Amino acid sequence: MSTIAPSTAGYAVDVVESTDGRMVLSMGPQHPSTHGVLQVITEIEGEIVTKASPEIGYLHTGIEKSAENLFWSQASTVIERMDYLSPLTNALCYYLAVEKLLGIDGQIPERAQQIRVLLSELSRIASHCVWLGTGGIDLGALTGFFYAFDLRERILDLFEASGGARMHPNYLRVGGLAQDLPKGFLDKLDGVIAMYEPRMRDLRGLLQKNPILQDRMIDVGILEAEDAVAWGMTGPILRAAGIAYDVRKAFPYSGYDRYEFDVPTRTEGDAYARFLVRLDEMDEAMRIIRQVRKELDTPGNWQMTDTKFAPPPKETIALSMEALIHHFKLVSESFRVPAGDVYQAVEGPRGELGYYVVSNGDNRPWRVRTRPPSMYNLQVLKKIALGELIADMVVMIGSLDPVFGEVDR
Amino acid sequence: MPSSQTPPPGSTAVDPTAVRPTIADARILRVTPDALIATLRELKAQGFSQLTDIGGVDYLEREPRFDVVYHLLALPTRESSIGDVGAPARVRVLCGVDVDQEVPTAVALWPAADWAEREVFDLFGIRFQDHPDMRRIQMPDDWEGYPLRKDYPLRGPASERTPRPSFALKSNVAAGTPASGRAAAALQKQLLEARSREVKTAAEAGRTAQTGVHPGASVTAGDASAKELAERPVNLNTKDNA
Amino acid sequence: MSPSGIGYGPVAIYLALAFLAALAFCLLPGLLGRRKPNPVKSEAYECGVEPTSDVSGRFPVRFYVIAMLFVVFDVEAASFYPWAVQMHALRVFGLAEMVSFVIVLAIGYAYVWKRGGFQWR
Amino acid sequence: MALGSGGDFLLTTVDSVARWAQSSSVWPLTMGLACCAIEMMTATAPEYDIARLGSEVFRASPRQADLMIVSGRVSKKMGPIVKRLYDQMADPKWVISMGACASSGGVFDNYAIIQGVDTVIPVDVYVPGCPPTPDGLLYAVNLIQQQIKQGGRGGILARA
Description:
The structure holds four protein chains of four kinds. By secondary structure, chain A is mostly helical. Chain A is 47% helix and 11% strand.
């Protein structure tokens, strides 16, 4: 009985058979700048990459199998841990799909939709902060890492205030939220909004017109609009190639059509274009947050009152018998979702994050298939890495911004 | 694990895709594997320029058993503003596949299909004809079985289950973390004696003697292979360690 | 003792001490460190997997060109130090000497630049 | 080493100096796996600043690292690689199993995840949390420093 998988010799290392004179190098699972456990088997001739074959699966967690064995509302625990840079976007997309299957997607209260929009824009900024920080470190810009992570810290305080945990707050539920925003939340939010503008000015001043970064990023990993679409690109990479496809504009969900924001695009399609698109996206996200902030002052219902899905308020459980029965039934055997299948897409920080959820009428999902934007974004490395210097491989991986919890699921 | 009430008979649909809730998220097409490539090529000609995802679903009792789901999106392929993009049309092509039936690959139409098809093969066992690199993508290369099939146990085959070491071994105190000054030192001395007794017995059993081994951490794995490490029941409350 | 009185004694001691310290840092870890060899530890480290290909293949010539250029221009930069220290003492003569030195090397630099020696591709 | 009492005194002081030096600069290995890796990075960021414990230099190669922080879930495919990295680290070495997934498989009790990295490599400190807060990680590094100072691996006397 082997307690661990067999030795590494069996891995797909001999995939790239080395033609004469070329060295096969494994930019392996443990590498300072692969942003996670990615193994790129590169065949190099001197400094030029002649063949790059990314190998993934080193963080395969079987999340979709686990989700099939959990109740509908429990499954969001494992699903949130897929894209751990913006967990709320995953949970939001999954719950929107379930609400569509239940047919209650029109009855989500206003305030719940506003808070969902607020939190997914905040997690977009937090995720781009991590991309900016680690991308800067790859190119030697350490100060950017400290500035960006400090801004992210303030945003994580908001998540901690909302759901209780910094990264995986588990704050969403079918039909709304787990609880209302705590008392001091809106003041903290005002603090973040006030702090954002000067901090972004510092970050742009540090990195945007930095000649070293410009030399390292311009004309590296070029991807035209045609190839971007064929390789399944969505999100900042597609918009850096010139196509302004944003799921929040194309298929508005959770009340996004009420806010105006525009979709930044570039046309060069190289690493620097993606850099600029993501920076502008952070500003657009903050623009939405300011609009949502105005709406949050009016209190309202944060959870559907239909107790078939939402547990009754805690205080009523001790008082009324059927509230206790509802609560017990929901907790012990969850609710059932009518049979059917649905595909729901959401604009994640890395692109179109989709959930193809199939239910056979049971109280557990039959199948939860995730459309992982990071996997398709990463796959294009095979194409754009050919003929580039091996030092630029680091810049390309950073500009594709893969998150390996989502790539390997 | 959630309670194991089995759903009342008849309340679960064998083929959920046949039951069409009123959700207008995409146009649905159902094809068979031999008509698949023709349909995809025709859809691509109609303007569905992006294959956003290929997913597999295992409907256990349904005939055909598997579904390979192609999600297509009609995106413009050159620079376009938000207005040009508008609300692109979506199509979902469901391709019913039997257990040992092969599906033609779509890599020729969209290069994005490469990894997606490898993943469907890796997790469902559905092979794709003349795919450039038909290998496992998520699981180790020599893994038996296809994990996302409904008859594949959640925790994997019994042979792969790693034994859970006793909690005593894993507690921080056993790992030498000092509770507090004097108590910690006393505890450490007791653990050291327990450890050295156990090491002595191990030494008599012909194993190499290890002096000064850190309490709690079992022998450094350098010389003991991982398999032996996992099976050695290092348990503080065994009889002779009392 | 040389006429200026101090002589090179202290310099020699200083160099010897530096050399001994360096030697100590190299040898002490080897002596005092523990030996716990295991088969995997002696193998080459390549990001966690077995090394994919032996490195005995021929290196492209481009590496040698870059190495030679670096040596030439680095030594050139190093030779500025003695002049910089004694700049006032050497006055115009030193300046003329250094300018001619730089011009000669600048011609070589321009030639290499035009021939594309610095471009990797 | 058969030394007179004077020799013992000399060696124990050298040993305690060696332990002090080793415990005040425990260099971790950059091996970020999943969500815990992001919290590990946040621990190096200015808010929590692991530099105060002397561990901010994250070495990329196991040859120069003393501490392996297993930050995230270890999949069956990654298991042998974690084991190989551990074997290639120079002695004395310590392991922090960061987070519930590394310590016991966490919420993923399924076919893909090794149920606890201590079935693969010996672990010194387990950090609870999913992911643990950065100050949880700082406390774990602090525990490692105490373990070094109080005996066990490390120093020059303990040959193991």
